[in-house]
Design goal:
heterodimer, A: alpha/beta, Nucleotidyltransferase, domain 5, 2 domains, 5-stranded mixed sheet, 40% helix, globular, B: alpha/beta, Rossmann fold, 4-stranded parallel sheet, 14 helices, 50% helix, 13% strand
Chain lengths: 258, 371
């Protein structure tokens, strides 16, 4: 039995097909989230990759900020629920998920048995989100995928405000004007995100095993900064960006089998 | 019958201006009452119609001339409505001093809204000792004197009568709260309408309507059970918020909302001196973030009430930049955790147009409660 999970975020769309709720049969990702062609492109990718068609799918669950606007699903589920399910699907001892997406950050805690027990969402602010990193990468004219490489060379991370993207932007420009080296600046930016999200995580209560999900999870520099800030190991899996979609597909499977 | 009455409550709650115009057309004088606790009984007894002024969900433009962005949007929207003549026709506004932002509202109002006089109601922090009661009475005397300048007349008998009218209304609202806890078919939006309409009606009229609703509900079979929750906060009247609660099948079985049940928990005690009795009411009030009490009984009240009413979870609706509520939140969370009652916090303000983050938050909370 195949179930499909679609995660329509603010900047990307992700799809996952699970076979019998046991393993990832196919996955697709497209840039462009809510209100774009992203979901359609991600779906086309997954049909092409899997050779399956819509009629092969027993149930489809949609998650993410675009879930309520998407037509063609069998139901919608909050992305926090899905990230918790998806994270636990990959890491069986998972107790804390730190999800940093394009426009927000969330921390979800799970009980020993894997039941979602608490969650905290950031307030309406771009600081500590993927958007913050995108803005900074734009100012520095650096590919965001190179952040880790730069940050590794840092000797003295610059101090960047974790309060506000707009303030941080002018701070970064000032630091550039003062001749601060790029590695120190990028390490400081990653520390800034980590500081912001770590305070959120502490509010929810951090218990190991801890993992990161969402697009920012791929950024090793932020992961390392977060490990330093929280004093715990942060697990990472290449599927981290798909945890929401995996959770949605798993949710669909559970609905059919329970 | 229930639906007809709910429709009537909705129309009143959704059209405060029409209500105010109606009273003005009848030749009655309207006095605006700002949050959180104004001595409505006193205003009523002096021949005015007390009329709730809790602002509105609106874009703040003019208020920004006086207020920084990080100020409670309820207060800012009251000023906005004052500056844009929405409250035109009111004889005065009484603004209590129960939080720092309300204090700034009064001072700004004096300059920003020239044609509606500001009457301060200065309350003591320590309201329970005798010196605190005397301070409250002195505050009432100031309100009384200012209302007399507007043509109001005071008498002990009239205030005693108004106290009785308000006590009867309090009882009706408490009864309604209990009855609604047994009727999941009355959703959050409809519940909000009933409570909100109280601010825009003469209390005797509202009591009559509420008592009819209680009777109608008692004769109606309870609807299918939903997810029982307790809602806490200053204000929860936003249609966007209530739509989500209803969409998610949540049933408010109790509230700790300042604009709703917190208003009706305490009656004016019997006594020969009606003004002193009114001060005794204020002295006896508790369980509210703006009523100082270092023991914070409100926290236990929330956990105990949630348990007693069978709420599966507590939803704290946090008005952005409301310091008194924010100070209480960690204590609420801790007490509810200890009582094994999950808590969700959602942030709202008067300028919100999009509630998607609130929806995601509450949808996740529902999953936690149901999975």
């Amino acid at each position: 039995m195949y179930t499909l999970g679609i995660d329509i975020g603010s900047t990307t769309s992700k799809c996952v097909i699970l076979k019998d709720g046991e393993y990832v049969y196919a996955k697709g990702l497209a840039v462009g989230g809510l209100g774009t062609q992203g979901p359609e492109i991600a779906l086309n990718t997954i049909w092409n990759e899997s050779g399956l068609t819509k009629s092969d799918i027993a149930r489809t669950i949609v998650t993410g900020y675009g879930r309520n606007r998407f037509e063609g699903g069998d139901g919608e589920v909050s992305e926090l629920t899905c990230h918790a399910l998806g994270g636990r699907f990959v890491f069986e001892d998972l107790r804390t998920v730190i999800d940093i997406g394009g426009q927000d950050a969330k921390v979800i805690t799970l009980s020993e048995s894997g039941k979602m027990s608490n969650f905290v969402m950031n307030d309406k602010c771009a600081a500590g989100t993927g958007r913050f990193l995108d803005v900074m990468a734009g100012i520095l004219c650096v590919d965001i995928n190179d952040f880790e490489k730069y940050a590794e060379k840092s000797k003295s991370p610059a101090s960047i405000s974790s309060t506000c993207t707009v303030f941080a932007e002018s701070e970064v420009i000032s630091q550039l004007a003062n001749g601060v080296e790029m590695p120190d600046l990028i390490a400081g930016i990653c520390d800034s995100v980590a500081t912001r999200v770590a305070s959120l995580a502490r509010r929810a209560g951090v218990r190991e095993t801890v993992c990161m999900s969402g697009g920012v999870a791929r950024n090793g520099a932020v992961r390392k900064a977060m490990e330093k800030e929280l004093g715990v190991r942060i697990e990472f899996d290449p599927l981290a960006q798909y945890f929401g979609a995996i959770g949605a597909a798993l949710y669909a499977h559970r609905q059919l089998t329970r | 019958m229930v639906n007809e009455l709910l429709k009537e409550f909705h129309e009143i709650a959704a059209s405060p201006k029409a209500q105010m115009d109606r009273y003005l057309a009848e030749g009655r004088k309207v006095v605006l009452t700002a949050p959180v606790y104004t001595p409505e009984e006193l205003i009523h007894s002096m021949g005015f119609v007390p009329f709730g002024a809790w602002g509105a969900d609106t874009e703040l433009k003019r208020a920004k001339e006086y207020c920084p962005a990080f100020l409670c949007s309820i207060v800012q929207s009251i000023l906005e409505l004052g500056m844009t003549d929405v409250y035109k026709g009111a004889s005065a506004i009484v603004i209590p001093s129960l939080c720092d932002t309300l204090k700034t509202l009064g001072e700004n109002w004096k300059y920003a809204v020239k044609d509606i006089p500001f009457i301060p109601m200065t309350y003591p922090q320590n309201r329970k000792p005798e010196f605190g009661m005397n301070f409250t009475i002195a505050g009432y005397e100031r309100v009384k004197a200012d209302l007399e300048k507007l043509g109001g007349t005071f008498s002990n008998e009239a205030l005693a009568h108004s106290n009785e009218i308000y006590n009867r209304h309090n009882k009706a609202m408490r009864d309604l709260d209990e009855v609604l806890a047994r009727h999941p078919e009355v959703g959050a939006a409809a519940r909000s309408d009933v409570f909100k309409s109280a601010w825009f009606m003469d209390k005797a009229e509202h009591t009559e309507l509420v008592e009819k609703l209680i009777d109608a509900l008692k004769n109606q079979e309870a609807g299918e059970a939903k997810l029982p929750v307790l809602v806490s906060g200053i204000l929860t009247d936003a249609p966007g918020l209530n739509e989500i609660l209803d969409d998610l099948g949540m049933h408010i079985v109790a509230d700790d909302v300042a604009a709703q049940s917190r208003q009706y928990r305490t009656d004016v005690p019997a006594g020969d001196d009606a003004l002193k009795a009114l001060a005794q009411k204020f002295s006896g009030m508790d369980n509210c973030s703006v009523l100082y009490n270092q023991e914070k009984p409100r926290i236990k009240w929330i956990a105990d009430t949630a348990k007693a009413r069978g709420a599966k979870g507590v939803i704290v609706v946090m008005t952005k930049f409301c310091d008194p509520e924010e100070f209480d939140y960690p204590l609420i969370k801790k007490a509810c955790d200890a009582a094994d009652i999950p808590v969700a916090i959602v942030e709202v303000d008067r300028q919100m147009e999009h509630y998607e983050q609130v929806r995601t938050n509450l949808e996740t909370f529902r999953d936690i409660l149901m999975m």
